[in-house]
């Protein structure tokens, strides 16, 4: 079953950009007299955005900004290839779309690295393959059946068909991954095609400024997400917990949760299986009710904060959480084989069902007590839960 992690960010971004361009079209008189200034400012803005993206290892955004810079220079100044670009609009549309597809498929790397030459080759191939495709599609009618369907489809094969396929790919990538960079690539494709085909007909410099704003937002948000989210479990990290502590009121409850015998589990099955267990426990913890906020504290430890809740209000929710984890059958892949007999047994199952338990320590914030003190009290309560035999909630 595919999880569409990026559906919320994709549609929210599309709505915001749609609203922005609607305003730009509606209020053209307000920015028309400032267009000369925009034409001069767009290049520094693109370079600044590229440098900013490079600092956060967002090479795809940096490449995109360089692409915009080159394109604007080509249409605004009489460069060697400017006339050819003007005469070959279909190539420009498809080549730009192909570049966006390439950026959606590759990973972010440092701009200057061992991958730089390879990326340059792929970018050049986008232009060459686009040129060859347009040449081939001019004579493709000789290879198509002379049926009504194919005759109706023929005018759309050269440009519309590849654009549709690229668009579907970018939509799928954006919906599958919670990444504003991929969403920005999708929005760039939409704006690129609509303006090239004169559906919105806005100045390219103005569009580039709007896209720069989107790229800056994408880089900032994705970088914030990486800094405050755990890669393995996707839960907020300890740094995010410290940020929450600054906004908490006088009444709250803190719980520390630890997976029982996790080291032994790692030694038995291996760290890869241990990572699977951490992700599964994190997924169950995300279902906690009562307004609890979940954080990965470190290792196999997690923290749950109940703002504006007492310990007596929070403990029932934590008991439900403990029971849900203890009774959940976790199916793990490829358990570690520990002896020669097991390794020789070809009929060994590739999957194994295991159960894990958690111990939870709970502490309610006392008057004049800091968050760190409440957290320490929760940690002491966790120690008591371990001493009582594990798989329980202690206060």
Overall residue-averaged pLDDT value: 86
Give start-end ranges of low-pLDDT stretches: none
What form results from the Cα inertia axes? elongated
Going across the biggest sheet, name each strand in turn.
Answer: 2-3-1-6-7
Tell me the fraction of residues in β-strands, as a range: 5-15%
Number of helices: 17
Radius of gyration: 28 Å
Give the biggest beta sheet: 5 strands, mixed
**Helical amount:** 55-70%
What oligomeric state do these chains adopt? single chain
Distance between the termini: 40 Å
Order of helices and strands, N to C?
HHHHHHHHHHHHEHHEEHEHEEHE
Number of strands: 7
- Class computed from helices, strands and strand pairing: alpha+beta
Kindly list the characteristics that best describe this protein.
five-stranded mixed beta sheet, alpha+beta, elongated, single chain
């Amino acid at each position: 079953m595919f999880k569409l992690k990026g559906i919320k960010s994709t549609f929210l971004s599309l709505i915001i950009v749609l609203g922005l361009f609607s305003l730009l079209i509606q209020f053209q008189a307000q920015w028309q007299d400032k267009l000369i200034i925009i034409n001069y400012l767009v290049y520094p803005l693109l370079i600044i955005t590229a440098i900013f993206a490079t600092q956060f290892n967002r090479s795809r955004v940096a490449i995109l900004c360089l692409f915009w810079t080159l394109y604007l220079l080509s249409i605004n100044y009489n460069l060697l290839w400017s006339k050819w670009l003007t005469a070959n609009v279909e190539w420009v549309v498809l080549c730009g779309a192909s570049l966006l597809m390439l950026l959606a498929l590759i990973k972010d790397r440092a701009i200057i690295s061992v991958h730089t030459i390879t990326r340059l080759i792929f970018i050049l191939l986008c232009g060459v393959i686009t040129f060859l495709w347009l040449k081939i599609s001019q004579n493709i009618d000789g290879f198509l059946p002379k049926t009504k369907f194919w005759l109706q489809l023929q005018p759309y094969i050269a440009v519309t068909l590849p654009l549709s396929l690229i668009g579907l790919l970018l939509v799928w990538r954006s919906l599958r991954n919670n990444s504003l960079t991929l969403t920005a690539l999708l929005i760039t494709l939409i704006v690129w095609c609509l303006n090239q085909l004169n559906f919105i007909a806005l100045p390219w410099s103005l569009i580039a400024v709007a896209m720069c704003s989107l790229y800056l937002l994408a880089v900032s948000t994705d970088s914030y997400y990486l800094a405050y989210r755990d890669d393995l479990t996707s839960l907020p990290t300890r740094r995010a917990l410290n940020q929450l502590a600054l906004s908490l009121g006088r009444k709250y409850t803190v719980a520390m949760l630890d997976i029982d015998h996790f080291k032994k589990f790692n030694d038995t099955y291996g760290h890869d299986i241990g990572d699977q267990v951490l992700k599964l426990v994190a997924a169950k913890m995300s279902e906690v009710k009562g307004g609890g906020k979940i954080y990965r504290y470190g290792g196999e430890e997690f923290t749950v904060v109940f703002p504006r809740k007492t310990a007596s209000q929070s403990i029932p929710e934590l008991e439900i959480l403990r029971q849900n984890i203890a009774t959940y059958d976790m199916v793990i892949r490829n358990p570690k084989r520990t002896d020669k007999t097991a390794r020789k047994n070809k009929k060994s199952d590739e999957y194994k069902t295991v159960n894990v338990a958690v111990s939870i320590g709970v502490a309610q914030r006392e008057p004049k007590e800091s968050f760190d003190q409440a957290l320490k009290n929760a940690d002491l309560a966790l120690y008591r839960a371990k001493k009582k035999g594990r798989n329980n909630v202690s206060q």
